Amino acid sequence: MLNIPVKVSPVTLNYEVWATLYDKVYGDVVDDIPYYVNQITGPDHAVLELGCGTGRVSIPIAEVTSKLTALDLSGQMINVLKQKAVLGGLILDCVIADMRYFELDVKFDLIIIPFRGFQSLLLKDDQEKCLAAINKHLKEDGKVIVDMFFPSLEMFDQDNRVFYEVKRISGEDPRTSTLVKHRSSFDMHSQLIETTLLVESSKADLVTETRYLDFTLRYIHPKEAEYLFLNNGFITRNIVNNFTNSIENQSSEMIFELEKKCDY
Q: Which segments of 8-115 are extended strands (E)?
Protein backbone atom coordinates (compact mmCIF):
# COMPACT_ATOMS: atom_id res chain seq x y z
CA MET A 1 0.00 0.00 0.00
CA LEU A 2 1.25 3.46 -0.91
CA ASN A 3 1.14 6.37 1.50
CA ILE A 4 1.27 9.75 -0.24
CA PRO A 5 1.54 12.96 1.84
CA VAL A 6 -1.84 14.63 2.29
CA LYS A 7 -2.24 18.38 1.87
CA VAL A 8 -4.85 19.65 4.30
CA SER A 9 -7.64 21.87 2.91
CA PRO A 10 -11.41 22.31 3.22
CA VAL A 11 -11.87 18.90 1.58
CA THR A 12 -10.50 17.16 4.70
CA LEU A 13 -13.47 15.95 6.76
CA ASN A 14 -13.80 13.63 9.72
CA TYR A 15 -13.63 10.48 7.65
CA GLU A 16 -12.07 8.59 10.54
CA VAL A 17 -15.48 8.70 12.22
CA TRP A 18 -17.20 7.97 8.91
CA ALA A 19 -15.20 4.74 8.54
CA THR A 20 -16.96 3.19 11.53
CA LEU A 21 -20.45 4.01 10.24
CA TYR A 22 -20.21 4.19 6.45
CA ASP A 23 -21.21 0.60 5.74
CA LYS A 24 -24.10 0.78 8.19
CA VAL A 25 -25.47 3.93 6.51
CA TYR A 26 -24.70 3.21 2.84
CA GLY A 27 -24.23 -0.55 2.64
CA ASP A 28 -27.68 -0.91 1.10
CA VAL A 29 -26.82 1.38 -1.84
CA VAL A 30 -26.31 -1.09 -4.68
CA ASP A 31 -28.07 0.35 -7.77
CA ASP A 32 -24.84 1.75 -9.19
CA ILE A 33 -22.71 -1.38 -8.77
CA PRO A 34 -23.81 -3.25 -11.95
CA TYR A 35 -23.20 -0.06 -13.95
CA TYR A 36 -19.58 0.20 -12.79
CA VAL A 37 -18.90 -3.53 -13.07
CA ASN A 38 -20.23 -3.50 -16.65
CA GLN A 39 -17.59 -0.90 -17.57
CA ILE A 40 -14.85 -3.50 -17.04
CA THR A 41 -13.90 -5.19 -20.31
CA GLY A 42 -11.63 -7.90 -18.92
CA PRO A 43 -9.44 -9.10 -16.04
CA ASP A 44 -6.58 -6.81 -17.13
CA HIS A 45 -8.70 -3.65 -17.35
CA ALA A 46 -6.77 -1.03 -15.34
CA VAL A 47 -9.17 0.88 -13.10
CA LEU A 48 -8.60 3.74 -10.64
CA GLU A 49 -11.31 4.54 -8.13
CA LEU A 50 -11.01 7.92 -6.40
CA GLY A 51 -12.74 8.30 -3.04
CA CYS A 52 -13.10 4.54 -2.65
CA GLY A 53 -14.10 4.69 1.02
CA THR A 54 -14.61 1.28 2.59
CA GLY A 55 -14.95 -0.43 -0.77
CA ARG A 56 -18.68 -0.44 -1.48
CA VAL A 57 -17.86 -0.22 -5.22
CA SER A 58 -14.22 -1.38 -5.06
CA ILE A 59 -14.95 -4.92 -3.91
CA PRO A 60 -17.36 -5.78 -6.79
CA ILE A 61 -14.90 -4.28 -9.28
CA ALA A 62 -12.00 -6.24 -7.79
CA GLU A 63 -14.02 -9.40 -8.44
CA VAL A 64 -13.79 -8.82 -12.22
CA THR A 65 -10.36 -7.21 -12.64
CA SER A 66 -7.03 -7.76 -10.89
CA LYS A 67 -5.84 -4.27 -11.84
CA LEU A 68 -7.86 -2.05 -9.53
CA THR A 69 -6.24 0.81 -7.64
CA ALA A 70 -8.45 2.15 -4.84
CA LEU A 71 -7.53 5.60 -3.50
CA ASP A 72 -8.92 7.45 -0.49
CA LEU A 73 -7.88 10.26 1.81
CA SER A 74 -8.71 8.27 4.94
CA GLY A 75 -6.32 5.62 6.20
CA GLN A 76 -9.05 4.14 8.36
CA MET A 77 -11.39 3.80 5.39
CA ILE A 78 -8.59 2.06 3.46
CA ASN A 79 -8.00 -0.30 6.38
CA VAL A 80 -11.65 -1.40 6.29
CA LEU A 81 -11.34 -1.97 2.52
CA LYS A 82 -8.16 -4.01 2.95
CA GLN A 83 -9.86 -6.25 5.52
CA LYS A 84 -12.74 -6.89 3.10
CA ALA A 85 -10.30 -7.70 0.28
CA VAL A 86 -8.44 -10.20 2.44
CA LEU A 87 -11.68 -11.89 3.47
CA GLY A 88 -12.74 -12.12 -0.16
CA GLY A 89 -9.35 -13.27 -1.42
CA LEU A 90 -9.21 -10.30 -3.79
CA ILE A 91 -6.23 -8.49 -5.30
CA LEU A 92 -6.16 -4.70 -5.42
CA ASP A 93 -3.79 -1.82 -4.74
CA CYS A 94 -4.75 0.55 -1.93
CA VAL A 95 -3.47 4.13 -1.87
CA ILE A 96 -3.88 6.73 0.87
CA ALA A 97 -3.83 10.04 -0.98
CA ASP A 98 -5.71 13.19 -1.88
CA MET A 99 -7.59 13.00 -5.17
CA ARG A 100 -6.19 16.43 -6.12
CA TYR A 101 -2.50 15.60 -5.74
CA PHE A 102 -1.93 11.88 -6.31
CA GLU A 103 1.11 10.65 -8.26
CA LEU A 104 1.06 7.06 -9.50
CA ASP A 105 3.41 5.29 -11.92
CA VAL A 106 0.63 3.87 -14.07
CA LYS A 107 -2.02 5.01 -16.55
CA PHE A 108 -5.55 3.66 -16.44
CA ASP A 109 -8.23 2.52 -18.87
CA LEU A 110 -10.96 3.76 -16.55
CA ILE A 111 -11.01 6.30 -13.71
CA ILE A 112 -14.16 6.62 -11.62
CA ILE A 113 -15.41 8.85 -8.81
CA PRO A 114 -18.60 7.18 -7.61
CA PHE A 115 -21.33 8.39 -5.27
CA ARG A 116 -20.72 12.14 -5.38
CA GLY A 117 -17.11 12.02 -4.19
CA PHE A 118 -16.13 14.76 -6.64
CA GLN A 119 -18.55 17.10 -4.86
CA SER A 120 -16.51 16.94 -1.67
CA LEU A 121 -14.14 19.28 -3.51
CA LEU A 122 -15.62 22.59 -2.41
CA LEU A 123 -13.54 24.99 -4.49
CA LYS A 124 -13.27 25.24 -8.27
CA ASP A 125 -9.48 25.28 -7.90
CA ASP A 126 -9.64 21.93 -6.08
CA GLN A 127 -11.89 20.47 -8.78
CA GLU A 128 -9.46 21.57 -11.49
CA LYS A 129 -6.50 20.08 -9.62
CA CYS A 130 -8.35 16.78 -9.39
CA LEU A 131 -9.17 16.83 -13.12
CA ALA A 132 -5.55 17.62 -13.95
CA ALA A 133 -4.40 14.61 -11.92
CA ILE A 134 -7.00 12.43 -13.64
CA ASN A 135 -5.89 13.64 -17.09
CA LYS A 136 -2.28 12.81 -16.26
CA HIS A 137 -3.16 9.24 -15.24
CA LEU A 138 -5.70 8.41 -17.97
CA LYS A 139 -4.74 6.53 -21.13
CA GLU A 140 -5.38 8.44 -24.35
CA ASP A 141 -8.35 6.22 -25.17
CA GLY A 142 -9.44 5.93 -21.55
CA LYS A 143 -12.75 6.79 -19.94
CA VAL A 144 -13.68 8.83 -16.86
CA ILE A 145 -16.94 8.50 -14.92
CA VAL A 146 -17.97 11.15 -12.39
CA ASP A 147 -21.16 10.69 -10.39
CA MET A 148 -22.77 13.87 -9.05
CA PHE A 149 -26.20 15.06 -8.11
CA PHE A 150 -28.14 18.28 -8.39
CA PRO A 151 -30.55 19.00 -5.50
CA SER A 152 -34.23 18.60 -6.22
CA LEU A 153 -36.69 21.43 -5.56
CA GLU A 154 -37.96 19.45 -2.58
CA MET A 155 -34.50 19.59 -0.99
CA PHE A 156 -34.29 23.36 -1.43
CA ASP A 157 -37.67 23.69 0.26
CA GLN A 158 -36.73 21.69 3.35
CA ASP A 159 -36.52 23.42 6.72
CA ASN A 160 -32.86 23.47 7.81
CA ARG A 161 -33.92 23.12 11.45
CA VAL A 162 -35.68 19.79 10.89
CA PHE A 163 -34.23 16.28 10.61
CA TYR A 164 -35.98 14.42 7.79
CA GLU A 165 -36.09 10.64 7.71
CA VAL A 166 -33.97 9.12 4.93
CA LYS A 167 -34.40 5.42 5.63
CA ARG A 168 -34.70 2.74 8.29
CA ILE A 169 -32.35 -0.23 7.88
CA SER A 170 -33.15 -3.60 9.44
CA GLY A 171 -30.30 -5.44 11.13
CA GLU A 172 -29.40 -9.12 10.90
CA ASP A 173 -31.07 -9.49 14.28
CA PRO A 174 -34.75 -8.70 13.55
CA ARG A 175 -34.92 -6.78 16.82
CA THR A 176 -32.30 -4.27 15.66
CA SER A 177 -32.57 -1.40 13.21
CA THR A 178 -30.80 1.80 12.18
CA LEU A 179 -32.69 5.01 11.50
CA VAL A 180 -30.99 7.60 9.27
CA LYS A 181 -32.19 11.21 9.17
CA HIS A 182 -30.67 14.30 7.57
CA ARG A 183 -30.78 18.06 8.03
CA SER A 184 -29.33 20.32 5.34
CA SER A 185 -28.74 24.00 4.75
CA PHE A 186 -27.93 25.60 1.40
CA ASP A 187 -25.57 28.43 0.54
CA MET A 188 -26.88 29.53 -2.86
CA HIS A 189 -23.94 31.85 -3.52
CA SER A 190 -21.19 29.27 -3.07
CA GLN A 191 -23.47 26.32 -4.01
CA LEU A 192 -22.66 24.46 -0.80
CA ILE A 193 -24.88 21.96 0.98
CA GLU A 194 -24.00 21.54 4.65
CA THR A 195 -25.57 18.33 5.94
CA THR A 196 -25.81 16.63 9.30
CA LEU A 197 -26.76 12.98 9.38
CA LEU A 198 -28.38 11.54 12.48
CA VAL A 199 -27.73 7.80 12.76
CA GLU A 200 -29.82 6.16 15.46
CA SER A 201 -29.35 2.50 16.38
CA SER A 202 -32.16 0.66 18.17
CA LYS A 203 -32.78 -2.75 19.68
CA ALA A 204 -36.23 -3.94 20.67
CA ASP A 205 -37.55 -0.40 20.06
CA LEU A 206 -35.03 1.11 22.50
CA VAL A 207 -32.41 3.57 21.19
CA THR A 208 -28.94 2.20 21.97
CA GLU A 209 -26.78 4.79 20.21
CA THR A 210 -27.14 8.13 18.43
CA ARG A 211 -24.34 9.50 16.25
CA TYR A 212 -24.11 12.74 14.27
CA LEU A 213 -22.03 13.05 11.10
CA ASP A 214 -21.37 16.34 9.33
CA PHE A 215 -20.29 16.79 5.73
CA THR A 216 -20.39 19.47 3.05
CA LEU A 217 -20.83 19.04 -0.70
CA ARG A 218 -20.74 21.53 -3.54
CA TYR A 219 -23.56 21.07 -6.02
CA ILE A 220 -22.93 21.86 -9.68
CA HIS A 221 -25.41 22.74 -12.40
CA PRO A 222 -25.30 20.26 -15.34
CA LYS A 223 -24.08 22.77 -17.93
CA GLU A 224 -21.62 24.22 -15.44
CA ALA A 225 -20.18 20.72 -14.98
CA GLU A 226 -19.85 20.20 -18.73
CA TYR A 227 -17.94 23.47 -19.11
CA LEU A 228 -15.74 22.60 -16.13
CA PHE A 229 -14.81 19.29 -17.72
CA LEU A 230 -14.32 20.81 -21.17
CA ASN A 231 -12.05 23.58 -19.84
CA ASN A 232 -9.94 20.94 -18.13
CA GLY A 233 -9.40 18.64 -21.08
CA PHE A 234 -12.47 16.38 -21.18
CA ILE A 235 -15.44 15.96 -23.51
CA THR A 236 -18.74 14.77 -22.06
CA ARG A 237 -19.79 11.81 -24.21
CA ASN A 238 -22.87 10.84 -22.22
CA ILE A 239 -24.87 11.74 -19.12
CA VAL A 240 -26.72 8.94 -17.35
CA ASN A 241 -29.59 10.14 -15.15
CA ASN A 242 -30.05 6.99 -13.12
CA PHE A 243 -28.39 3.60 -12.88
CA THR A 244 -31.43 1.48 -13.68
CA ASN A 245 -32.54 3.20 -16.94
CA SER A 246 -36.02 3.21 -15.45
CA ILE A 247 -38.43 6.02 -16.28
CA GLU A 248 -40.14 5.37 -12.97
CA ASN A 249 -36.86 5.78 -11.11
CA GLN A 250 -35.81 9.21 -12.32
CA SER A 251 -33.52 11.02 -9.89
CA SER A 252 -31.33 14.10 -9.58
CA GLU A 253 -28.25 11.91 -10.17
CA MET A 254 -25.93 12.93 -13.01
CA ILE A 255 -23.34 10.38 -14.13
CA PHE A 256 -20.92 12.04 -16.55
CA GLU A 257 -19.06 9.77 -18.95
CA LEU A 258 -15.95 11.63 -20.17
CA GLU A 259 -13.03 11.13 -22.50
CA LYS A 260 -9.94 13.15 -23.26
CA LYS A 261 -10.39 16.13 -25.55
CA CYS A 262 -8.27 15.99 -28.70
CA ASP A 263 -6.00 19.00 -29.26
CA TYR A 264 -6.22 18.87 -33.06
A: 47-50, 68-72, 93-96, 108-113
How many residues make up the chain in this entry?
A: 264
Residue 75 has pLDDT above 70, yes or no: yes
- State the distance between the two ends of the chain, measured CA to CA, in whole angstroms: 39
The correct CATH number of 6-149+220-260 out of 1.10.10.10, 3.30.420.10, 3.30.2350.10, 3.40.50.150 is 3.40.50.150
- The pLDDT assigned to 8 comes to 37
Question: What mean pLDDT value characterizes the chain?
Answer: 90
10 confidence band (pLDDT: 50, 70, 90): very low
Instruction: Give me the long-range contacts of 35-42 (CB less than 8 A, separation at least 24).
Output: 35/240, 35/243, 35/255, 36/60, 36/61, 36/112, 36/114, 36/145, 37/61, 37/63, 37/64, 39/110, 39/112, 39/143, 39/145, 40/64, 40/65, 40/110, 41/109
pTM (2 d.p.): 0.92
Task: Give the span between the Cα atoms of 241 and 6, in whole angstroms.
Answer: 33
**pLDDT confidence of 243, banded at 50, 70, 90?**
confident
Find out whether 81 and 55 touch, Cβ atoms under 8 Å: yes
Which sequence spans correspond to the domains of the chain?
6-149+220-260, 153-218
Cα separation, 128 vs 61, whole angstroms:
27
